[in-house]
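From the methods appendix. Each design record in this collection lists the tokenized structure first, followed by the designed amino acid sequence. Records were kept in a plain field format so they could be parsed without special tools. The example shown here is representative of the layout used throughout.

RECORD:
FOLD TOKENS (165 positions):
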């Protein structure tokens, strides 16, 4: 199946509605969760599965220098995956949790305490991965691990939820 880059977007207004939603969470919604969202949607399109991803941050600072981490931009460029540079990082809300079929936080040690404090009602629904931020490891080490984790998720979803077309 040939992918058309103009069909791949992270602009909510242009997304094709899907009944299955994944929400990726990290701290700033700038680096890891944004990569997971963009890469997931690219691969889900290629796999023709009825899932879409979104991403949010759990502790956004007052000011973020750009809309997307340079590490995410560089890695997506190496993979030749288009992305929306205009979307700003977004803070997680209860509505985001409520509309998601699956919620995945990128690193348990970092995100579990924040989720317990801000979203206690939804805390038992969150799955945790163990992808480090730049304070603990390099993007060159962690982005390939995150890519592999997302790819495994796509494979599992494709086998568990085959399209009825």
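DESIGN:
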């Amino acid at each position: 199946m040939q992918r058309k880059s103009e069909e791949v977007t992270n602009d909510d207004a242009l997304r094709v509605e899907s009944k299955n939603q994944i929400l990726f969470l990290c701290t700033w919604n700038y680096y890891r969760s944004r990569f997971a969202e963009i890469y997931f949607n690219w691969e889900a399109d290629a796999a023709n599965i009825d899932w879409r991803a979104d991403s949010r941050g759990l502790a956004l600072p007052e000011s973020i220098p750009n809309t997307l981490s340079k590490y995410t931009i560089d890695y997506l460029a190496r993979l030749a995956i288009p992305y929306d540079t205009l979307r700003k990082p977004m803070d997680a809300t209860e509505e985001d949790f409520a509309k998601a079929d699956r919620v995945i936080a990128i690193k348990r040690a970092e995100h579990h305490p924040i989720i317990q404090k801000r979203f206690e009602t939804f805390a038992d629904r969150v799955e945790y991965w163990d992808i480090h931020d730049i304070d603990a490891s390099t993007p060159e080490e962690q982005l390939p691990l995150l890519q592999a984790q997302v790819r495994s998720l796509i494979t599992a979803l494709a086998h568990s939820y085959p399209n009825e077309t």
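APPENDIX NOTE: The longest strand covers residues 20-26.
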